[in-house]
Design goal:
This protein has one helix spanning 59-67, and strands at residues 9-16, 19-26, 41-47, 53-56. The protein is mainly beta. A hairpin with a 5-residue loop joins strand 3 (41-47) and strand 4. The chain is extended, with a radius of gyration of 16 Å.
Length: 80
């Protein structure tokens, strides 16, 4: 049976254009009984003006999102 997940490590917050960026190292959702543990990954989060948290995988991605005022392009039509 898998073990419970390891708590993420939290790093000091950063700031970009007046918006606070939270930085965590996430270890996955469970630790398997056998085999290697999942590799950790860095995640960056920022809150928009409505308080919604946005997560990205790199600091440059979250900084770009902040620069675009948290506007994300619409999903491309599937063409089906």
């Amino acid at each position: 049976m898998p073990k419970p997940p390891q708590a993420p490590d939290r790093f000091p917050s950063q700031e970009h254009n007046g918006t606070l960026i939270e930085v965590i190292s996430h270890y996955g959702y469970c630790i398997p009984d056998k085999g290697p543990s999942p590799a950790s990954r860095m995640l960056y989060a920022a809150r928009d003006q409505k308080g919604e948290r946005h997560w990205r995988g790199s600091k440059s991605e979250i900084a770009s999102l902040i620069d675009r005022n948290f506007s994300v392009p619409p999903l491309a039509p599937s063409g089906i």
